[in-house]
Design goal:
Layout (H helix, E strand, L loop, with lengths): L9 E6 L9 E7 L6 E5 L12 E4 L4 E8 L5 E4 L8 E8 L6 E3 L5 E4 L5 E7 L5 E3 L4 E4 L5 E6 L4 E3 L8 E6 L13 E8 L4 E2 L3 E3 L4 E4 L3 E2 L4 E7 L6 E2 L3 E4 L5 E6 L14 E6 L12 E3 L13 E3 L5 E4 L5
Parallel strand pairs: 3-11, 4-12, 14-23
Antiparallel strand pairs: 1-2, 3-5, 5-6, 5-9, 7-10, 8-9, 10-12, 13-15, 15-19, 16-18, 16-21, 17-20, 21-22, 21-23, 24-25, 25-28, 26-27
Length: 321
């Protein structure tokens, strides 16, 4: 003989309801919770009918849990005092949540969970011989943006006019140093802080899951620069230095223009030209052959060919008739 339901408290009448035998009332039966079979985690007593389900809390916030004993029917027996502090534990931990994030109460009937670092965990209360039912997953989320930091610096070297060889990556952090993975709105702007030239690319970017990526930057003038990164309401940053080198030769400029000279005399000072890239930077290519032509015939002794030297320039000595 067993009750039709394990719910307690409950009461009923025991009677014969079969097809044989007398219709006899055997008396009343009351039910109550008895043997402790399970230990579950509950919120504070005001929410005693709820188990701790999957939920999110902000980094630094607290969550109090109670060890609740139940019988085989799932009926409440008592708020259980565990035997020692190690009976309270975190399991299935991910991220940076430390074991110390769970602090048992002196009476071991409850514990307070709080982590400044993000991640996930389940809370478990254990008693020897008793089935332990842990909480469902608790996720610690980052707080609001508090600062920006450089995660990936620009390259130490770059070529004028060419996209940097690696992205400049900025992380948005909360007050505890967690990446604010919930942030998809913080914007940052990048510019040249020291040095000359124009920085090209998409100079204002918006965070995606707390990460701001500048992936198409380039600078046009050959020199040493560093970059400034700013974000409204947050701190400013300065990158490491970038040595921007010239690009390949794309043209020639005069360093020394030809001047009026008497016929048969050497042009003085000599005509000198310089290789430059598409951005006007002196091109550092030696050994390039250069040739001179003129609208009038030049003396047979004129120097009409030159090779770029260590200074990447070429000199010509010209004679008129």
């Amino acid at each position: 003989m067993r009750p039709a339901t394990t719910a307690v408290p409950d009461a009923g009448t025991i009677s014969n309801t079969g097809s044989t035998g007398p219709d006899v009332n055997y008396g009343d039966l009351s039910k109550a919770a008895v043997l402790l079979r399970k230990c579950r985690l509950k919120p504070p007593p005001m929410e005693a009918d709820k188990l701790y389900r999957t939920q999110d809390i902000l980094a630094g916030n607290t969550l109090t849990v109670y060890a609740i004993g139940r019988d085989i029917g799932g009926n409440f027996v008592e708020n259980v005092a565990l035997e020692n502090t190690n009976d309270w534990s975190l399991i299935n931990v991910t991220g940076g949540i430390p074991a110390s994030a769970l602090e048992p109460a002196p009476d071991l009937k409850s514990a307070v969970f709080s982590s400044q670092l993000t991640g996930t965990a389940n809370i478990q209360a254990s008693l020897p011989g008793i089935i332990s039912v842990p909480s469902e997953t608790i996720t610690v989320l980052p707080r609001n943006a508090d600062e920006i930091v450089i995660n990936t610096q620009p390259p130490a070297n770059a070529i004028a006019g060419e996209v940097f060889s690696n992205d400049v990556i900025v992380h948005v952090l909360d007050i505890f140093g967690n990446l604010v993975t919930t942030d998809n709105s913080t914007q940052a702007t990048i510019s040249i802080n020291s040095g000359n030239g124009t920085l090209s690319g998409t100079l204002t970017r918006t965070a995606v899951n707390g990460v701001i990526t500048f992936d198409d930057l380039s600078a046009d003038i050959a020199n040493i620069i560093d970059l400034s990164i700013t974000s409204t309401g947050l701190n400013s940053l300065t990158t490491t230095s970038i040595e921007v080198d010239n690009n390949v030769p794309a043209g020639i400029i005069y360093l020394e223009q030809p001047v009026n000279t008497a016929q048969g005399q050497t042009i003085n000072p000599p005509v000198e030209v310089q290789l430059v890239d598409a951005f006007g930077n002196y091109a550092d290519t030696q050994g390039i052959d250069l040739n001179v032509t003129a609208s009038v015939a030049l003396d047979a002794g004129s120097t009409l060919n030159a090779t770029t030297d260590a200074d990447r320039s070429g000199c010509f000595r010209q004679y008129h008739y």
